[in-house]
Fold this protein.
Amino acid sequence: MAGFLRDELTADETALIDRAAAFARDTVKPNAAAWERERRQPVEALRAAAALDLAALEVPKDAGGPGHRYMVKLALCEEMSRADMGFAFSLVNTHNVAARLALSPTARHREAHVPGLMKGEIFGATALSEPGAGSDFSAIRTSAVKTAEGWRLNGEKGWITNAAIADLFITYVQTDPAAGWRGIACFLVDARRPGFRRAEPYALSGGHAIGAGGFALENYIAPDDDLLAPPGEAFKLAMKGVNGARVYVAAMCAGMLASALETALAYGASRETFGRKLLDHQGLNWSLGDVANDLEALRGLTLAAGRLIDEGGDAVMAAAHAKKFAGRVTLARIADCIQAMGAAGLREEHGLGRHLACAKLAAYTDGSTEMMNERIGAGLLKTYGPLS
Ligand SMILES: Cc1cc2nc3c(=O)[nH]c(=O)nc-3n(C[C@H](O)[C@H](O)[C@H](O)COP(=O)(O)OP(=O)(O)OC[C@H]3O[C@@H](n4cnc5c(N)ncnc54)[C@H](O)[C@@H]3O)c2cc1C
């Protein structure tokens, strides 16, 4: 089954996504089960993906990147997640840091960090969440206090993708607790500087290639020019950027679901029970038809939101719809694919158990399903009301 975003791409973009799909098939898929068993992030495979320019996509040409549009990243996310969503998410998070720092007014960020991130020599992460604050981002407590030498940062971050390996963390902190979201600022934190302490990566139910973990800042001094967004701006920038992330998580879910369906169909077309192929039993055939039906709906919502983001439109509602739907159907429909294969669906070699665990991770990253309800609920009247 070809990727659903391919029709959107130019010939050059398609060539890049073909390379990504071949890498997913030949390198990620055969090794993903071992990474899971070893509970580790595959640094060597992330470097190999970067060598194919897959960590550079949106980095503008004047910063040494290819300057691809958002739709290319979306297609990459889908293709890579067919093999392993944890790997896709890790790769795209380093890419996001490269693309963000490429726009920094500070020459040191662009020249010292962006080339290494694009080549996979170093890795990046974005840190909003903390052990005590996830959905309620405005409640973060990691503090930043202005000093004569720069800013002194103290606090703890948790549930950060790539925390196991990242060198550079785009980190959100509170400068004035009384100001709530208006007090939040954003800094570049370099794990190689004094005052940074990495925690052990989490042991999860699955999806270890994502490298989720945490870190502590203990009197970490950030130079003034490592302030990426000042109080008042940082929160709004984070909220704007999260729409793109929500839609690529939906694309990752579409990739996993397409892969699960393909596997179940291949199995059902060859195995026989009661003298017929499994797929010739109407009950089972209909159940996989329901999977295909939800997959098409997920693809449609994802594509509509992706186009809006590419056009620079207001994608808040479209992104929330795509991510909410992904959260609602992916886990259940992957479970249906496993069911359709009988006990064989549980075998590690098919990768469906890994998809199942990653579908659950996807229901939290970049906003939980409940937070999508909040977003959609807040826009109901304006979007669907009598005066809309
Ligand atoms: C694998 C993985 C990778 C991640 N990577 C990153 C990363 O790179 N950077 C980063 O900053 N964060 C990351 N996160 C954190 C993610 O953004 C949070 O998990 C998410 O925001 C939810 O926060 P929480 O887990 O603390 O749940 P909580 O906020 O504690 O919520 C617990 C439950 O209550 C629900 N809930 C909360 N408030 C309400 C409400 N008002 N109404 C109804 N229900 C509510 C939530 O939806 C959730 O189901 C990652 C998470 C995972 C699982």
In short: The domain at 126-231 is CATH 2.40.110.10 (Butyryl-CoA Dehydrogenase, subunit A; domain 2). The mean pLDDT is 97.
